[in-house]
Each structure stands twice: as structure tokens, then as C-alpha cells.
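Bench notes, afternoon.
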Amino acid sequence: MEVRPTSDRYLDIVNCGNPVAESEATTLDVYFLETEQFRQTVDGTLNIILGRKGSGKTAVFLQARDRIRADRDNIVIDLAPEAFQLIKLKEFILAQLSLGARKEFLAAYWEYIVWLEIAYKLLEKDARRARYDSRIIQQYDRLQQAYTKRVEGEGDFAVRLTNLTDRILSRYREATETGEAISSKTLEIVYGGEIRDFRDEVLALPEA
């Protein structure tokens, strides 16, 4: 809570911030109160925060993200999908997949997104370094080729998520039309190929 002293009454000038943390992410640190959940998130002892709407989950996330990101050696993957982006995916899953296939699909879907976003951040962060460091240029190019093979076009996370979802659903429809056994090909259809090869390319990029 921030208080700016003036000649007016204090209650008239108290600013408790916007109820929606996302609406003022750039000024949240002015009045953010460090909680035990925040401290545990930053030091890595807390991985999941649960709470009702308005209980401060997003505020903790935004502040922890900024604190960790302040160290240039860290790479923070900020995944914040909007609910409407996943409606098409939800409708497809409920209509087309059995309970067991749904779990397999969702696990593969989010694993794939995480690895793609890690690759995106690495390529973004090391773009300048790759031009001057001969030790990483070859591996950087390999990772870039592996990434562009799986992601079409440019744009922010929202655009990338929407495009990826459309491609996965398209692959499912194609497999259905050809009469293939979907249950045995779930991972291949989601990943669009072998995920291990792509993961190896991400992990192979040398550290600074």
C-alpha cells in the first residue's frame, strides 16, 4: 500500500492499486507486500500457488518473475494463456477423445509448449551472442532450424499458442480421415514428430 502525504485527508489519497494485478504489472512493485508464498517461490521451495480469485496469485507470479529475471543468467518462461484461446482445444478434447486419451493429449500438449517456449527464449537471448561466439553458432543454427520447422510465423505467445493449437488439431483431423489409430499416435500427432530430438537440441546449446 502506498501513501502520498499531502495537506488532504490521508484516506482520500491512499492507493491500494488495481484489483487486477495484470492491469498494472509495471507499478506493482511500488506497493507489493512480500509474503511467505512469494519468498518460497523465489527460493524455489514453492512450485504451485492455489487460491481464490483476487487472493494475489498473479501478483506473486509477476513479482517473482521480475525478481528472478533480474539475474541475466536466468531465463524465465512467462506462459499466460487467455481462456478464450483454449476454448477450441477444450471443445475438441471433450468431443473426440476418451478420458485416457485426454490425459495423454494434455500432458503432451503442455510439454511441447514448454519446450518450444524455452527454445524461443534461448534463440532470442543468444541472437547477438551467436554472431560473435564461434563456439555456439553451429548449435544455435541447429536449434533455430528445429524451432522454425515446428512454429509458423511471428508474434507473441498468444499468437504462437493459437497457431500451434490449430496445427495440432489439423493433424488430428488428417489422421482421423485416413483411418489411423489415434490412440497409438497421440504423442506423434501432438509433437508433429519426435520430441526427444527437439529437446536434445535445446539442451545442447552451450551456456554463456
